Amino acid sequence: MKETKYILLHYNELIKAIEDANHAYYNLDSPIMDDAQYDELMQKLLQIENEHPNIKRTDSPSQRVGGNAQKTFSEVRHEPPMMSLGNVFSLPEAEDFARKIKQACNDFDNVFSAELKFDGIAIEAVYSKGEFVQGSTRGNGIVGENITANLSTVKNMPLKLKGENIPDYISIRGEVFMRHEDFDKLNAQRENNGEALFANPRNAAAGSLRQLDAAVTASRELTACFYGHGKIEGKKIESQKELIEYMKELGLPVPENIIFGTIDEAAKFQDHWSQNRHLLEFDIDGIVLKVNSFSCRERAGETTKVPKWAAAWKFAAMEAVTKLESVDFQIGRTGLITPVANLMPVNIGGVVVKRATLHNFSEVENLGVKIGDTVKVIRSGDVIPKVVSVIDADGTERENFQEIQAPSQCPFCKSTLTKEDIYLRCVNPECESIKIENLKFFVSKEGADIEFVGPELVEKLKNADKLENIAGFFKITREDLLSLERMGEKLADKIIASINSKKIMPLEVFLKSIGIRNVGEHAAKVIAKELTTLEAVRTSDLEKLTSIHEIGPETANSIRNFFDSNFGDELIKTLSELEVIITDYVGVQSKSSVFSGKTLVVTGTLVNFSRKEIEDLIASLGGKASGSVSKNTDFVLAGESAGSKLKKAEELGVKILSEDEFITMSGIRNESH
Q1: What Rg, from alpha-carbon coordinates, does the chain have?
Q2: Burial readout 26-39 (b: 16 or more C-beta within 10 A, e: otherwise)
Q3: Which stretch of 52-61, 352-361, 386-395, 559-568 has the lowest confidence by average pLDDT?
Q4: At residue 522, what are phi and psi to the nearest 5 degrees?
Q5: Topology agreement, domain 319-425 and domain 599-671
Q6: Residue 72 reports pLDDT greater than 90
């Protein structure tokens, strides 16, 4: 009797823990445990239900898919329901899955599909007559959230299907996820804006896709991939292989890594990606096994929760145990101080990990971690290593271990640190480490994107007294570069050309890259679109700045503090003297432009503009950028290595402009002084 009470108590505790995890994961986009912990709880729950079916609750998490539609979105009913997958964790379990399929399908052709299991947010997309008409989240599997406007902003998501064999109606299922590079970029922007960081790419993708304002979703780099279907009218599909090929024919993004074969071949596929998932640009947490034949799927059937013809073969958690040997402090370009653990090197998923983040000093306190502790380290999202727990936290020998003390002074400039919520920040504008971080950011892809200039080169130039501030990049000479160790002439020439190409810079790029606190990519574009010129941004008061939609008091104060400071004032003057041109926001039409109403074709490689930048600039001058030369073309802008378009322009007598001629005629050089 006591044993039964204990089992029932444990069973109810498991349900409560799993429901809390489901709510945090699906509804709040804020996981409270990693996948390995969740899977362990679910396995224990299933074991109790199998051994004691008499206590099984009708509301058990094993009977439904977690998550409910948010009230802030309208509801979408899935027909048929979007089911979740059962899990297998080993080769014997996968072989047992295959055996059950064979029993259900006597003429089974023994073919499975095996594809990567993306760690993102499950979605459904509906196309009618080839047009994208509805997008939704999975929700609870029966009812999801209508995210049509948001899903339509995902860049690789086709709004119209391609090909000649388009069905009257098709609903397809897949995943939206965020690539590592885009995740890092987003978190860097959020740190710059003083916002909370996303815990992992899955969390970031879910949060981005479920924004009430689709413009926010559009500002973030998301990727869609489709691997399943709901209803199809006007086309009969008989296998998973045929479905993937058909979706590809329609122009839909489908898995690149997918095989069709026996369960043994699927096992090799699973083992390969278990060892090599760190090579991918995105997170996966296993592979998905599916019966290839759709007729066999019908015979295999499904439970109330999962299909019997598919399973997720989960990877073991990418974690390891090692020793924390010391702690360093890092500083970001906004002065944020972060503790970083130096570890005894350990191999996690094919990568030797020597350092791991401790996030902040509040996290250090919560973990109770000390220097000398044996700690568990995981690669968060399989990428960023982090310390998650202390092993043997009650060990008596820990009494002699060193506490991790939060510094009261900046470890780099020794100025007093400011406490902001759970964070510590250096607010000294003369801190050399902050200056270096700002210089590194300026040249990065998130900043002005100056090719061939990376963090190491920035440090070399700074140490050689060739670089004091951002304006210094435009003073660097070929001789300055060649004086550095291991600098060749060809590389030096490429660097100078890359820097010179940024001497004409759009206002929104300039604002996001010069180190104004709280001004990331989105805020920079909002400000540039509203105020349109650098002069207007420099002179707008707090009232004007805070009247801009999405710009709050903190951001407005940061802008005013920057441009009112000696640093900001001197930077603008120096850039002007160096003939660095900050162009007006491209959405503003120039009525007096000689290009108003004219058609221009751009061909060849330009020195000062990327292809998108020049096309945006042409539009801002009232012109139209065309892709082909005809008798209706007014100008051809010819860069280096111009080819057939230049030849055709000469044959038709179309006026040909060099890049310098275009800049002079546009008037942008004069307008910036």
Answers
A1: 29
A2: beebebebbbeebb
A3: 52-61
A4: -70, -45
A5: no
A6: no
Chain-centroid distance of CA 163 in Å reads: 30
Q: What is the CATH number of domain 2-63?
A: 1.10.287.610
Higher pLDDT, 621 or 167: 167
Residue 586, sorted as left (phi over 0), alpha (psi -120 to 50) or beta, turns out to be alpha
Surface-to-core class of residue 494, CB atoms within 10 Å of its CB (0-12 exposed, 13-18 middle, 19+ buried): middle
- CATH code at 432-583: 1.10.150.20
* This prediction's pTM: 0.51
The Cα 90–Cα 88 span in angstroms is 6
Whether 117 is catalytic is yes
CATH code linked to domain 84-314: 3.30.470.30
Q: State yes or no: cis peptide before 385, omega within 30 of 0.
A: no
| Bridge partners (DSSP) listed for residue 291 | 112
Domains of the chain, by residue range, sit at 2-63, 84-314, 319-425, 432-583, 599-671
Q: How many CB atoms lie within 10 A of CB 489?
A: 10
Q: Give per-residue pLDDT as tens, 129-187.
A: 999 999 999 988 888 889 998 999 998 888 889 888 899 999 999 999 999 989 988 98
Residue carrying the six token digits 């924004």: 211
Distance CA 83, CA 62 (A): 12
- What is d(CA 8, CA 566) in angstroms, rounded to the nearest whole number? 69
- Residues above pLDDT 90, as percent of the chain: 48
pLDDT digit string (tens) for 474-524? 999 999 999 998 899 999 999 999 999 999 999 999 999 998 988 988 889
Q: Which CATH number applies to 599-671?
A: 3.40.50.10190
The catalytic position among 5, 100, 102, 117 is 117
Cβ neighbours for 646, distance < 8 A, ≥ 6 positions apart? 603, 604, 636, 638, 656
CB atoms within 10 A of CB 351: 14
Tokens describing residue 210: 């479920």
pLDDT for residue 668: 62
pLDDT (mean) for 551-574: 92
What's the fold here for domain 319-425?
A: OB fold (Dihydrolipoamide Acetyltransferase, E2P) (2.40.50)
